[in-house]
Amino acid sequence: MTLTTEDRLAIHELIAQHGHLVDDGALDRLGEVFTGDVAYDLTPMGGAVLNGVEAMRTSALELGDRNPVAHHVTNTVVAEQDGEVTARSKFLGVRRDGSVGSGVYADLLRRTPDGWRIAHRRVSLRREPLKP
């Protein structure tokens, strides 16, 4: 598979859409970003692997006001190797008290009849600066 410019643009838009949907509370639209069988891996942060869009939605609702008030994604790099399409993005989550957390989304993407979707996302936080 060779990624076209249109593919790359669609993937960037897809990754950006996640933050808008979550921040708007449009959790019923997560299927526009993720495959129905997505594995949303929070284990690097001490959480679990959420299997499926419904598990993601339930988890966000359970977090309630502990959810960030804003999600920002930047520095997205899309790659294709051996038929797999991946993206790696930096994110910032702004909490209600103004504190900010930083991390990395590592995504495996799949082209579906409805367009590109994230099939697997691993979420890890950045807690320590570079130590040469």
From TrEMBL:
Extent of the signal sequence: none
Pfam families according to UniProt: SnoaL_4
Keywords: Dioxygenase, Oxidoreductase
GO molecular function, one term: dioxygenase activity
Domain SnoaL-like: 5-122
Domain of life: Bacteria
Gene3D superfamilies from the UniProt entry: 3.10.450.50
Protein name: 3-phenylpropionate/cinnamic acid dioxygenase small subunit
